[in-house]
Amino acid sequence: MATATPKPIKCKAAVGRAAGEPLQIEEVVVAPPKAHEVRIKIICTSLCHSDVTFWRMKGNPLAVHPRIFGHEAVGTIESIGEHVDEFKVGDLVVPVFTGQCHECADCTSERGSNICSLLPFRISPAMPRDGTTRFTDMNGESIYHFTGVSSFSEYTVVDVTQVVKLDAAVEHNKLCLLSCGVSTGVGAAWKLAGVDVGSTVAIFGLGSVGLAVAEGCRIRGASRIIGVDLNPDKFELGKKFGLTDFVNPKEIGDKSVSKVITEMTNGGADYCFECIGLASLMSDAFKSTHQGWGKTIILGVEMHGSPLCIAPYELLNGRCVMGSLFGGIKPKDDIPTLLNKYLNKELELDKFITHEIGLDEINKAFDLLLEGKSLRCIIWMDK
């Protein structure tokens, strides 16, 4: 129970007013948390490619403005609403874009589902329980949410199912990474694929999530980790994350990528991960897996809405395709485990951070990501 009634807070936020246009630093009002909600003082946040995708989206019902983007962050609980027993003011937490309620059939299932059926994941412009917003501008007009997090603000309100408490005295910029990208990639290798010792892996797309998959495969003991990317500089970078081989589709002549990988791995990779979001690459990844047991894990959201087409007979030989949301991570259960892996020096987080800036410079983070110059740019609220 809260000890005092929380009041509205005025603070700075980076607001997206129109698709693809630079974010504007504005003063906004953040309403108090309602029942089953907490208000978080954001310490730092970072830019994920999903933010960019929806920031520049036009002509889609999901493209809503004005909006506060951001979903990868770390902060402290500033105030709590009614019926909140899991957290107290001052707790160090990471918000996440998908919840874990500990009550529904999915969250309590031992089959591994991380799709909460009480409050399922949606790209919603509002809070998940009552469909309203907690942000207004200085004219009293509503500003919309993004994935229930909206961390490009000094303060934000998040449902309790989407908040994970962390106790370790770890640098905040490292904790921030566990909120989305690193957990997604490492989780896909660990929770979904179950990459085993000595296996062969191919990763299509070597952005932050793809490299996090490589990190997860390295931790799991894969003997060969093949990266597929059009940027030749990604091979040297990828070696830091466990990459052993590299395929540039522009440098293989008339051969297909799947043909090259099949030849490299004596029949196909045990596991393939698609981390871009192109149906053609998803198909290439599937064709690159070994007959009889090959697994293809899809992490990328198809950017053009194109379907994945696989002939039914191709599934008869034992290969399979799996979808991945948040790498199969159950946030409240598994993020603390990933933190322990970092503390035990199994999981390396430092190498994901390439830039650090203040909130006033947030548009520079977009430029760096779009230019392919950054993995994770940490955005500090007090810098």
TrEMBL record:
Pfam families: ADH_N, ADH_zinc_N. One of its GO terms (molecular function) is zinc ion binding. It is found in: Cytoplasm. Its main location: cytoplasm. Its cofactor is Zn(2+). Residues 209-340 form the Alcohol dehydrogenase-like C-terminal domain. It catalyses: a secondary alcohol + NAD(+) = a ketone + NADH + H(+); a primary alcohol + NAD(+) = an aldehyde + NADH + H(+). Keywords: Metal-binding, NAD, Oxidoreductase, Zinc. GO terms for cellular component: cytosol. GO terms for biological process: formaldehyde catabolic process. InterPro entries: ADH-like_C (IPR013149), ADH-like_N (IPR013154), ADH_Zn_CS (IPR002328), GroES-like_sf (IPR011032), NAD(P)-bd_dom_sf (IPR036291). Residues 35-167 form the Alcohol dehydrogenase-like N-terminal domain. Belongs to the zinc-containing alcohol dehydrogenase family. Class-III subfamily. Homodimer. This is Alcohol dehydrogenase.
